[in-house]
Amino acid sequence: MNWTQIVNPLSNIGLSALVAAVPIFFIFWALIIKKMKGYIASLLTLLVAIIFALFVYGMPFSLAVSSTVHGALYGLFPICWVIIGAVFLYNVTVKSGQFEIIKNFMASITPDRRLQALLVAFAFGSFLEGAAGMGAPVAITAAMLVGLGFNPLYAAGICLIANTVPVAFGSVGIPIITAAQVSGLPEMAISQMVGRTLPLLALLVPFYLIVIMAGFKKSVEVLPAILVSSIVFSGVQFLVSNYINPMLPGILAGLTTIVCLTIFLKYWKPKSIWRFKEEPQQTIETELKYSTSQIVRAWSPFIIMTLLIVAWGMQPVKDALNSIFQLKFYIPGLHDAILKPDGSILNIKPFDFNIISNAGSATLLAAIISLPLIGMNIKNAGKIFLSTLDQLKFPIITIASIVGFAFLANNSGMAITMALALASTGILFPFFSPILGWLGVFLTGSDTSSNALFSKLQYTSAQTIGVDPLLTVSANCSGGVTGKMISPQSLAVGAASVGLVGRESELFRFTLKHSFILLFFISVITVLQAYVFQWMIPTYKLAEVTIANQVSDISQGFLYLLILGFVVGIFMISVFLRNRK
Fold this sequence. Notes:
Elements: E1 3-4, H1 13-20, H2 22-33, H3 38-55, H4 61-95, H5 98-107, H6 113-131, H7 136-148, H8 152-162, H9 170-183, H10 187-194, H11 198-214, H12 216-221, H13 223-243, H14 249-267, H15 292-312, H16 315-324, E2 327-329, E3 338-339, E4 351-353, H17 359-374, H18 378-391, H19 393-412, H20 414-422, H21 429-444, H22 447-465, H23 469-480, H24 488-497, H25 504-531, H26 550-580
Parallel strand pairs: 1-3
Antiparallel strand pairs: 2-4
């Protein structure tokens, strides 16, 4: 039995679009006006969407349920699985005490507040966003800056603004992966397009941060350090996102910036040390208390994670791991059951349970491998894993609900209705495309959730006006990062981490104008990419089928894994030996 989508159920595209957008208006109302918890708002939004799909769009109940289940499964795997792995690795590092060593190392590099902001808020925050996300970067870096003597409001505000450029690749690339799953575009193509936009923002943000803190003249005094931060970060982010995979740009860009800036500051110092006029008491020890061996040991879980994710991103390695176990299946009753308005079959991908080759498994394996290095036994790690699941239970419900809603909106035709209305803005749509991403992150607090909500909408709208959908889907990711600093969830995390609970409105006023300025910057870049610098849009294929040489690719993949095991083994032995001396 087939069902044909209806894209204009009220015979007026504007009115139909307003009705289709009711679930989105509902989540705005639930989060902003009623201030519901995210998971409750998401579940109720999904319920509202099902009602409208059934009674306005005439979608059969079985198809509505199947579409929702399909999306929820994608929300649980691979999206939530990646987040679980990343947060577990971070929690293991904290509980083992190794994260205290990392914090002391970061605080000992320079006493200048401007340079500390570059190192902690920008570089270290970017690394944490790439590795864990989920509010950890702002919470950790803001608390560190307060401990170093920063004004709490400035500490939280600066960390929120700094936490823009890595967000699209945060938590091991999961926002990009989600955008690919929902839109049907290749992950690597979206990674490349975002990686040709956000590095331009990364060139601006370090200088922008210091100007906010100290003014223009005092910023010029540390311009060499700012240039090192900007050029290194944007360069690595561009190279990794365009030539390796979407899982590592935040991790490697942040880590490389920390290393390069640390080395640079050993040979260059500003003429004068700058501090705030009125500073709280410093509570973090800034004298380096640990040896190089201890510092490398503390960083070892993240180093091993980086090595594994680089390998997991290689296609031969993916093929080899998938040859061990991979389960693909269509959701019952959904395959070839929905027709587009033109009568063609809506292409619905099968659910791919490739758990071994998933980046979340690589991160989880890195955490397990690191246990002997950081002095933790498997029993305690098991307890931490269970506590991580408990910590993430509500975000998991939220993500599964949001992705379920996104799939339902796509399959029912609601997304197409809204896309047709948005496409009426014509050539101006690329300017509004990042604003849609910004709005999604403001509401949900997550670039991942925003991409789940709007990626298909961006794709369909771009097709309607003749713009490459890759540009607008990527603009949703890039524009979304500028909404992170003003989302209620981020403000709550930032305020709580520096003891400003109840003063979130002050933090909101501090960051609001900066959010608009950076969003405008992204919107202008997107318009230029759409109509002037079209060469910036990478070429790509919607489906990559690799049948030829599959056997040789698999054998090559196992060879790469063998080399990886050797490299990781050598690294672990060297860490053991150096820390026994």
